[in-house]
Amino acid sequence: MIVAAQDPAGLQSRRRLIVAMVVASSTGVALVAQTSHHDLLAFSAWYVCLALSPLWFGDGRDISDVFRPYYGVALLLYLYAVATPLLVGDTGSAYFGEAVDPQDMATYYLACLCSIAGLSGGTIVGQLNAPTARTGAARTHGDSEYPALLVSTLVIAAVTATHFWQKFNPGSATSYAAEALALRIRRLADTSSGISETMLQTVPSMLVLFTATIWAFRSRRVLLRALGAVALVLYMSTSFLSGWRGELVIAMLVVGMYIHYRVRRFKWTEVALGGALVYLLVNGLALVRVASDLRAMWAFLQEDISNRGFAFLRLGNSGELATSSNLLRLISGIRVGESSFGWGSIGLGQFLAFVPRVILPDRPDMASEHFVKVFYPGIFELGGGYGFFMVQDGYWDFGVAGSFMYALIFAFAFERVYRALRHRFDSDLVVFLYALLYSQLALAVVRSGIIGSVKSGLIAAIPALIPLALSRLRLETHQGRPTPDVYTS
Fold first, then answer.
1. Could you read off the pLDDT of 302-355 as tens digits, one per residue?
2. Contact 313, 381 (CB under 8 A)
3. Based on the structure, what is the number of domains in the chain?
4. What's the pTM value of the predicted model, to 2 decimals?
5. Which of 6, 55, 175, 207 has a beta carbon 3.0–4.6 Å from 10's, enabling a disulfide?
6. What residues make up the domain containing 124?
């Protein structure tokens, strides 16, 4: 057991959190027990025991931080993992209609348990000799950061305005159904489309979002607070009407983490309520994003509720959680000879795929693309995809042992990144950086795969790294000179 000095308040937080999580987990297991899914009940009991181990054996630091990465990953992994067995138990087939062999389902459960065991072990090991986080509100170089952010935002936004302004224009929103497939096809056809989209749309949009968040919650000027709030509302409204759930969740996460680390701490009850609302929003938006205006979206939602009730909120019926069915498809495919274990080639190929296609046109595919090519070639030719469950990376390479190993390495690295950044959460830009990393490495990882989320996390971090680098340059240039306190002006 890792031993660390703890104050009474820290020990009390640990006890309260453990009790709360045991109660919540027991409630979930009890709900599962009311169904006929007895195998799922046993899986849930084992999962809870493994998932709680970092609370018992960890060092106890930052245990009450609601945005600690392990909490988000472990919870989402469970939701995705149980969605497929619930659907199979109710319908007799997986999400895409395939028959399920009992042997494959047993392997599915084992791979998921190995994955949470790896996440727990990696988190515990990642706490060894980790730096202690500062908890004070003092800024280390905030006076240098705000001008750097402002300059970065103004310059990059001015240069790229014609490319990203529609991100803040709800009137220009087009439905996800009309845009998603066409966008995937354009990305496959144009090797430079990913870089262009990142630099011309994502980076300026996020910089504006960062600035607007600081203005809305920290500025002393009423006009700046109003401008910041308007920009946030416009961006989130456009993302909602366009049906881009990922963009909407990232924006909410940037604002939420900024409030949590820089304004006031969220309570666990507030986070639980917020998580429930996000679950409702994500699953509801999946039904209505065939339209891009509120009236039509509301009509689609009413029609679905009148026909099926609130079935879209059930875990087994959630299209968002259906990604876990891909693990069953992979297990079955390897068993019958459609594919085979990669013995490291799947992971290596994905790291080579980090190189942009404009530089290496014949680079290997990411595992999510390779999976669709192998198992759903018709869908791939149309530019579609089904996501990639995070347990699949390791399983495709080394079976259930790989599921454990990949999760262990991932959790260890993410815990170390969290501790390194947590040490500097007195910096607004570092908070924004962590929010972007968290969006990919804690939230998207479950449906994008471990290595795929690392790639997307590196790309997502670019908007925060630009002003951070400029801030560091400015700090070194003006070192020793007093700077005016304009940070919250």
1. 888 888 888 888 887 787 888 999 999 999 999 999 999 999 999 999 998 888
2. no
3. 2
4. 0.87
5. 6
6. 8-134+400-410
